[in-house]
Every structure is written in structure tokens, then in C-alpha cells.
Amino acid sequence: MKLLELKDREWTLSDLDDGPGLLRVDNGQDLLESPPDLTGISVVRLDWPQFKLGQAFTQARLLRQRYGFEGQIRAGGAIFRDQAWHAARCGVTAFEIEDGAEDGWLESLHAYPYHYQRAVTGEAAWALRHGGSA
Amino acid sequence: MYQYDDIDKAIVQARVDEFRGQVARRLTGELTEDQFKPLRLQNGLYLQLHAYMLRVAIPYGTLSADQLRVLASIARDYDKGYGHVSTRQNMQFNWPALVNVPDILQRLCDAEMHAIQTSGNCIRNVTSDPFAGAAAGEVEDPRIWCEVIRQWSTFHPEFAFLPRKFKIAVTASDEDRAAIQVHDIGIQLRTNDAGEPGFRILVGGGLGRTPYIGHVVRDFLPRDQLLSYLEAILRVYNVHGRRDNLFKARIKILVNEMGEEAFTHAVEQEWEEIRKLGPSGSVDLPEAERARIAGFFREPDFAALDDTDFRADPDDAGYARWLSRNVSAHKRPGYAIVTVSLKPEGEAPGDITADQMDALADLADRYSFSDVRTTHEQNMVLPHVRQADLPALYAALSETGLGSANAGLVSDIIACPGLDYCNLANTRSIPVANRIQKRFSDPVRQAEVGELKIKISGCINACGHHHVGHIGILGVDKKGEEFYQVTLGGRADAEAAIGEIVGRGLATDQVVDAVEKLVDTYLSLRTGPEERFIDAYKRLGAEPFKEALYETA
Amino acid sequence: MSAENPGPRAQSPAKIAAGGVKKARLDGEKVITANRLTDGVVIYRAEGGAWTEDLSAAQVLEGEEAIGALAAAQADESTGVGPYLMDVETEEGIHPSGRGRIREEIREAGPTIHPQFGRQAERGAA
User: Fold this and answer.
1) Is C85 exposed, middle or buried (0-12, 13-18, 19+ CB in 10 A)?
2) How does pLDDT run across A11-36, given as a tens digit for each residue?
3) Mean pLDDT of B463-476
4) What residue numbers bound the domain in which B488 lies?
5) What is the pLDDT of residue C122?
6) How does the average pLDDT of chain A come out, rounded?
7) N or C end of chain B: which has fewer CB within 10 A?
8) Quick one: B54 and B193 in the same domain?
9) B191 in a domain, yes or no?
10) Is B238 on the interface with A (CB under 8 A)?
11) What is the domain-level CATH number for residue B453?
């Protein structure tokens, strides 16, 4: 397994490293009411036990937009490349991927030039249409 | 209608390219069927009994004449010469090959159409009133807000893998022609006491195996805050909706398990949190974008006409019946709304051939500002026809087999594809519809019976909306034989109600007799022709109908 | 509308029924059927693992042999999508039987409402 990670706005391949400061958040954990304890945490790993378990997309967005987490949000488990751009728009900045799979993941991450709605990353179409200001 | 700009075009084109790649990866084995399935479903592609089925989105049921011609070309080139209007205003093709689907999507894309999110556990094509922009009494054209929702929900990154599918309907008048009370979210445009426009929001309606009427979670939502409110509802659903049981995964189950009050509280609380992001983080549309989209739904260039007495004493009895059943009042003097029935006797309800599509497109160009609609009752509509053109339009429709004068009558049946096409069905639906049509073949008798909505589903998933049929018919499998259960008193209008099961299931050769008994009972008990079947049922209850149905059986 | 996602049974590994057919049992004669990946056409598994459009050319299996062949069919996704066991009787040729009989007859022949489509049309023309 490798890590495909957003560094200085570029997706970069590195070795997978479960160092200190990593917090694993369970797919079923409800983050609506309160955040996990993020003290000293630099990486939050979100889990897709099955690819269709989409709660983790909400978890990513809440970590970024409600709780202001600025470290790495990593996606692992059964998530596959065609879902990657959804996750990235929700604030995921790293993916655990199979060795040699990076070209496909990069293609999927760059599949869409525009987005209709505002999320964590990627300007909304309506903002572009009206001079970039809401 | 809405027209794509460069951004819309680039997004839909990217989708076509992405799916072309995904099909190729499936064919080489890089993608498993398990992974490919949600991807193809989110592009409207099912695998049915005999072939793949492609469900093309017709956003809020609005088409241009040219787009209808493109659908005709797809029917001709990739299907067996016909398409099928679904109960969510989409068009389905029953015979495309997987390897051709990327080319079909490209052809759609070139005509500013797509099949995005017409299936899968995501926010589906938003539906609306087929008379939008033509009927009187609208706050404004609901399609403005449908398009706003279409854009917001298309590839929404947070809500593409929900617990289950999610359907939204929007209407703008008190007369509900979009069945908003039986949708996951129903939205009614209205004004508050101060005259400001906004929305009433209903959540948790739905049909399927556990039917519910939606609850009002907000009686008035200011117009500019629609998207943040929808986002709050979807987020509560995505977090709390059940994923352990497919049959309990819809939002209606969540609303009823949490309780209406607790659910509403959770949504309102989430909405407050979302609003804390402030204008720089807001997901709501700026006024400039609302105005841009609204600009596409300005009225066509109506002529200043006077109403005519077009209903007075037509010579031809067929034309007279068509006028009384298929022609509705328009908001502008001198105009009318025409329902084009896709329910001729003996055909699959909602089917339309490629030649008929081309003919209808020509008639739309000639008589209705090139505007065509699809309806959830599986018919089509020409929304803006001059009253003076009605005789010529009727003649032209009749010539192409589209002149059935039966809108809202006993032969205007909603039926799912059933076991003739569908992978999930227990029983056939369409042959039952055809046999009922045949029994009530006499147009004079149909007119005498008056408005009667029969809806047939071939399994408990209720795609034929049987729960909200005045007479609902549900196919069930009994040890390998087709049986049918009858429900009564359902309706999908402003007084929406779930039909009541009247008794044990009927064998397939008893169904038509049963419908006839119900109709005869109604005719014998009604106070007069002005009391419709559903009114009589409301007054009398189920009892006299049950008695009639089971006295001799 | 036509289809929704299939029920949980569809995801279980040793599926011996599909669609509206509930509680199929392993007794009796079976044929493995699926839809062809490229165009969705109904196909049947013949001896040796090849697929055929012709039900009369299908391999009839029983018991553990049927389960074993089904597992092999499921492991190879390159041609047949969603393989499962259907009940057949073999009095005169091979014909669908059991609870799924109507469904399998329609799959084999084509939609009853459109006799001009499917294999029934070819037979009619022949």
C-alpha cells in the first residue's frame, strides 16, 4: 500500500506511515454533535468498511468546516478511485492506495473541471459565473 | 428553458468521458461488477430481464422539441424504436447494449441532456408540475427552483452514497400535480403573510414497501435559504439514516423512527450550524445566480388573445371527448394546456415510438413554442397551445396515434414495466392494464365513469404508485402464480392518502371483473356524475366496495 | 419506475434464485443463467463453462455439482453478470419450472406484451 497525499497542492506518492498523531475514526461515529479529541492529532484516518458507506464524506466535511481540523484527513478501506474526487471535495487530503494504482487515482481525481456546489474545496460554478464572489 | 453555459457543458462532458472509461475498465476486468454497479446506476443504467435499461433524465419533465427528436434518434438507433415515459418524468430505453451506452450519453450531452443520477443511492432527478409556467395560480415557475436543485444535487460530493435513493419534487400552486406529499422531500412554493416568496418543506413521504405521507418540517422557509436547508436535511439523513436494512433505509423510516418533532429539531439544529459558516462559507445561491437561472424560465412570447368558446358543441364526438378530458385551462386568455395521452388501448402505458416522438416534436414547434413536458402519470403535455389551434392539433395527434381522449379516465392507467421487463417484479403489470383498458373500451362508458385513477405495481417496490391509486393493484407472487391485491381510496393530489387494502389477493383472471364491480358499485351509489369515484369513496368508506368485491367470490 | 437495487439476497455468495423468486431450494434440476456483460442478453451455462443463448444447449446440474459450477461462474465476471441457479424440468427438452417459472419463461422468450421482440420473435419468423 502507498499513500497518495496532497502536498503543496500536488498529489504526491509516499510510503504509508502510521506514525504517532494518527487518529482512526470509525465509519459509524456521529460527529454532528461533537468532534473527536483532536489534541495532538496530525492525521485523522476515515474508514470505508464498504465503499457504499457514505457517512465518512460527512465526517470529512465536519472535521474541516465545523471543527477546523487542518491536518491530514486520510481515506482508507474499501473506497475506490471513482469516489476519490467526492472525498477530496469534502476535505480528504490523502488516500491509501494499492501499489502501482496512482495513475488511475490521479485520473479520477482530475475528472471534473468544475463543480456545481460549494463544499470544502473547489469553487462553486455560481461563484465563477458571478465573478468569484458570493 | 434552461440552456447550458460552458461550465454546464464541461461538467456533463466530463461525465460522459468518465463513464466511457469506467465501461472500458469493467470490460477489461479492472472494475468488479460490484464496483461498477453503483457507477452505472448513477448514470441511469440498469440490468433488467432481457437487456440493459437506460433511464434518461428529463429534468422536471421539461423538453425542447429538438431534445425530443434526439430521444427519437436514440430509440431508433440503439433501441427497438420506442421509449417509455416513467413515473418520475424520465424516459427509459429498454434495449441498449452496454458497449453503446457511452455513445448514447455523448449524443445526449450534445443536446444538453444526460442520465446523471437517475438511479443509485443519491439525489435523483427532481420532478415537478407538468403544467408549470402554464397553469394559473403559481407563485412563480417551480422549474426555476428545480434547476437550482438540479445543479446543487448534481455530483454533490457529500451525498453521492446515501443510505438509499432520494427523491425531491417541487410545485408552486395549491393544486398538487407533482405528488409532493409522497416524496422524500416535497417542496411547495408559497408566500407568507407579508407576501414574500418562500417554501413549505415536507419530509419523509414515500411509497415502496412502507408508504407514508410527508410531514411538514417547515411551513415557511425564506426563498434564499433553500439549499442550506436541504443540505441540513440530507446531512441528518446521511448520518442517521439506517444502513443495516435495505428496506428501512429511506428517510421516511428515519423520520418515523425518530419522531417528527425530534427529526425536525435535528434538522433545524444542523441548519443553524451550517448558517454559522457565514456568507463566505454559505452553500446558498447568491441572488445574481438565482436571477440568471430565473431568466431562462421567462414566459414565452404569448400573443394577446381573447378566450374563445372552443368547447361549444363540436361536431365530432371524439374531438368533444378529447376537449373535455385532455384540454386544461391556461393562465393566459386564448391559450390551453393539452395533455397528450400515451395510453391508447393495448399499448404499454407510457410507451411512445420514435415516429411519434418526431411527430410530437413537430407539433410542439408548430403549436406550443417548442415546449414539451412529460408527466408522472406517464403522459406528455403541450403546455401552450392557442385555443384556435386545438382542432388542427387534435387531428394531427390522432393521425399519429396520440389522440386518445382519456386523460384521467379509467383507461389512463399508471403501470410499472412489471415482469415483462423488470428484474425485481413478482408479476406482470402491463397485461393487466391492457385487459382493464379492453373491458372499458367503450369511450362513452369511460366518460360516464369519469375521473378514476388506476395504478398498478408488479411488486412491493410500488413503482406503479398503487398506494395512491383511487384503485390500486399490487402484484404478488403466490407459489409461482401471479396474484393481485386491490387497494382503494389512495390519491396523490393535495389531499394525498394511502389506499386501504380491501381483502385477499385475486387470481389474474379475476382482476378485471373486480375493477368492473368496483366501478359498477360506484356508479350505483354516487350522488350524481359530479361526484367522482374518489369523492364517493371518501363519503362512503371502503365497506360497500368490499361487499361488492367479495360477496360472490 | 422499473427497478430498484436488488435485495440483500442478491449480494449473498451462493444465490440460487433472483428477482421476485423467494426461498428457492437446492433440490431438483438446475441450469445456471446470467445476463451477458456486453449487451445484457440472457445466457445459460453449457458444459465446460461456455455460455450459450440456447436454453436447450445448457448443462443441467443437481446438488453440490450445481453449487460448484455456480461458484465457478461467479468467479469469472468477464461474460456472465449475476449468475444464479434456475429450476428446470427436462421431460421434453429443457424448460423453466418451479416458483420462478413465469419469470424464466419471459427471460427466455422476451416480453409477453411485445411478441415482436426477443427470441419469441425469431422463433415466430422461423
Assistant:
1) buried
2) 999 999 887 899 999 999 999 989 99
3) 97
4) 414-550
5) 85
6) 95
7) C
8) no
9) yes
10) yes
11) 3.30.413.10
pLDDT(B266) > 70: yes
Same domain as B243, residue B283: yes
Chain centroid, CA B464 distance in Å? 10
Q: B150 to chain C, minimum CA–CA distance in Å?
A: 20
Orientation of helix B533-540 relative to helix B511-525, angle to 10°: 80
So what's the pLDDT on residue C16? 52
Q: Which residues of B touch A134 (CB under 8 A)?
A: 279-280, 282, 286
The interface residues of chain B toward chain C in range 45-84, judged by CB-CB distance below 8 A, are: 46-53, 55, 80
B277/A contact by beta carbon, under 8 A = yes
Q: Do B234 and B98 sit in the same domain of this protein?
A: no
Look up the ipTM and state it: 0.97
Angle between helices B430-439 and B511-525 (to 10 degrees): 50
Q: Give the mean pLDDT of B45-70.
A: 97
- Report yes or no on B74 lying in a domain: no
Residues of chain C with pLDDT under 50: 1-14, 19-23
C13 close to B (CB below 8 A): no
For testing contact with chain C, the best of B34, B49, B436 (most C CBs within 10 A): B49
Q: Quote the CA–CA distance of B72 and B361 in Å, as a whole number.
A: 10
In the stretch 49-78 of chain B, residues with CB closer than 8 A to chain A read none
Q: How many domains does chain B have?
A: 4
Domain ranges, ordered by start, for chain C = 8-96
Q: What distance lies between CA C45 and its chain's CA centroid?
A: 9
Decide: residue B312, CB within 10 A, 0-12 exposed, 13-18 middle, 19+ buried: exposed
B158 touches chain A (CB under 8 A): yes
Interchain contact B92–C (C-beta under 8 A): yes
pLDDT at C13: 39
A107 shares contact with chain B (CB less than 8 Å): yes
The answer to whether the CB of A128 falls within 8 A of the CB of B21 is no
